[in-house]
Amino acid sequence: MTERAPVHLSADSEEMEISFGPQHPATHGVLRVMVKIDGERIVETKPVIGYLHRGTEKIFERETYNGCIPHTDRMDYTAAATNNQGLVGAVEKMMGITIPPRAAYIRMMLAELQRIASHTIWLGTHALDIGAQSPFFYTFEEREKILDLYEEYCGARLTLNAMRVGGQPFDLPSGWTDRCRAFIDQLPAKIADWERLLTKNRIWKLRTVGIGVMSGADAIEWGLTGPPLRGSGVKWDVRKVFPYDHYEEMEFDIPIGTNGDTYDRYLVRMEEMRQSVRIVRQCLDRLPDGPVMAKVPKVIKPPKGEVYFSVEGPKGELGYYVVSDGTDKPYRLHVRPACFINLQALPELVRGHLVADLIAVIGTLDIVLGEIDR
Amino acid sequence: MTTPWMTYLLIPLIKIVVILVVLILLAAYLSWFERRILAFMQIRIGPNRVWPKGWLQAIADALKLFSKEDVIPARAEKLVFLLGPVLATAPALIVFSVIPFGPSDLLRLTDVNIGILFILGVASVGIYGIILGGWASNNKFSLMGGLRSAAQLISYEVPMGFAVVTVVLMANSLSLVKIVEAQKAQHVWFAFPGWLAIPGLIAFFIYFICGVAETNRNPFDLPEAESELVAGFHTEYSGMKFAFYFLAEYANMVVIASIATVLFLGGWLRPFPNVAALAFLDVIPPIVWFFAKVAVFLFVYIWFRGTFPRYRFDQLMALGWKVFIPVSLINLMAVGLGILLLGGPR
Amino acid sequence: MADQDTGAPVAPAAPKPPWEEKPVPATPQDAREHPQVRELAEHVGDGILEAVEFAGQVTVTVGLERLVEVCRACKDRLGYGYLVDLTAVDWKDRAEGRFDIVYWLHRHAGEQRLRLKVRVAEGAEAPTVTTVWKTANWMEREVFDMFGVYFAGHPNLERILTWEGFNGHPLRKDFPIEGIDTGAAIYPDVYPPGGGPVSGGEEGA
Q1: Please, which residues 248-277 of chain A have a Cβ atom closer than 8 Å to chain B?
Q2: Is residue C8's pLDDT more than 60?
């Protein structure tokens, strides 16, 4: 018989190292977390990433600016629209392009629908991690409808490639606004349904309240952005602080939490979906006429210089740092990935918790490995 | 006409075979029903292809599992690894020997006068299958699943036992048949005893919830918590051995539901056995009543799975030790006191 | 609805809307007099080597030896509590040091941002700023991994996106985009050294 690790039968507890992932049902892709546990209590956590590294930033350097856009789709593959928005925004800022208002409104609609779509994935998988199966299917039903709207607009459901430097590649197809409005009108009732299943559920609260707590000051220190930051009570949103497109014309609230725990982050995201509904509705109401593409040169050649432009992605601040040497290809294009930096706080958030909480906290950070590893 | 040979060997053998076949089919079809019902709850369709309308899906699943390669991990403790699924499945099947499906002697294998003790004793053995299987796999996730299972067992056997003793007090017997007959004699189900209505209900709920925990079903499915422990104690099991664990889980569900039916819901009795006006309900044979009640229980099991998130390990233990044990103990004492003061069951 | 009529007519008398004008690209301007820079200069004096404003964003170049001091001043005295981003740029043939390390700071009071930059020669070490902002930890690891810039005093300077034993720094300009023969395997106990997934083309080919 092959040798076995010796079994100790003593009352002393012993630390055990266990590797969650890279293939594990609850690590949302190929995250690997090395956990040292004492019984079920977590002593030390070490996230190991890079399993999905594709060298996106290197690939950017050989692509033209518009050619980079499809690669951004594949970073946070649950939120392609906001990824596109960040990159085109950065280049437009460098080149001094003002996009037509209709294009900006379309972008905002796509981005807010994407936020809803991303949050529905988050809710479904987060609930699944905590053991509630059904919300996963309910949320994915709504997400499918959003993807249908995308498909109608740009032909793609996931990797949209839906924006270009200088505006939008196409106008909205006829009837799109009606279908979008129909979707938006029925969504709040669905969100209320999901909340009815979870928000006041005793077990859900037991599993999320007080789990993975981070104070607002710590959240800033760790560079958290997006719902993890707002869940800690910091009222900060790129859309309000540095409005891009036409967010300054939109009325919406920034939901914040009070305790900075998993439950607050859950509430923040749920409210964000409602606020996104609000924004899309305003966009539909005020959608201006006009062209969707500004007058831009055939070859995009930003001036020599560097610019950083960020958008509020569903996961947090998604930034693009573009260094141009005056040619038609970026000299360096760096992405500030929100998930990468949010994930960094994982060991801090789970210290002293149980194994089950680790899964809950990974879920609440809403990470996408495509963006972390790039 | 009846020879001892027939009474003691042939008839029991036939009964055993029938019960085993029925139970295994029931467990297999329970999994199919679960998938259909869950699918219905989750806006999906569920298995509907295997002819006709998915009815043979359970059989197809079983065939597939039996024909799979039997993998034993290189560093597993082979004997214990093999023993695990057997230990888990056998008790679940054995328990059925004392469960009365109807008033007739034909509808049960045997009536032991310590039936409840037998059930409590045998059912607890099943958990060893999980602990040993988890340990023998030589996998950290399995080990954690097995340990969780052990902790869960001690937290939940105790309140469950108290809840059962409450019924024993009410019926004044340990025999399952006598318990049902006592419910008939007292014209009530023990979940709603005519006198002291509340304690009966409390005991019923405690028994049922502990039963969910004992079968490792959602929201207490910690030993196999998929999102945490991959598949918990049966991570390394595949093929037929996995099928046995699977069978054990579903057979256990049927067992818990059957015992709950016998103890609290009047077994094969019709609803409101005390109301003469409902006597027309007796047209329906007792065994149908029995299985209808079991089916309701099983549906609730599945409903739980479609609705609840999972408890955390320590929260589940806290619930067992800090809530259920005190409540069931006080409940037991209240029933005892009630019997003392108000007179025992007639 | 408004979906179909794209080229809506613009009133002829009105000036052309900005999106029909030829865009005016951003140009760099000296920013020594920019309030954010002057404020910083008060605290670090001659630590500022250069200050440029481009597209409304201020970049301050500081000396490598004074970097931590400047960062401390930015965080503690000027309130730049949030390190948004930390990355590097490879200027392969530049004389004054091959790499730019770029720090992008944010302060919540006034919602202002400031970019710090240091130049690091190849082989030289940059001081770590993890002591100033905790979040710099992984970002510096990424820069180390991608550019091979060492950060002195970093608590855990390991590769983060590529694997341990990877032999190269992919975002350097002299790293071929097709990849290299890494010379080290992902699984050293399975592949002999140099026998791992190899040069160019598809992995495992």
Answers
A1: none
A2: no
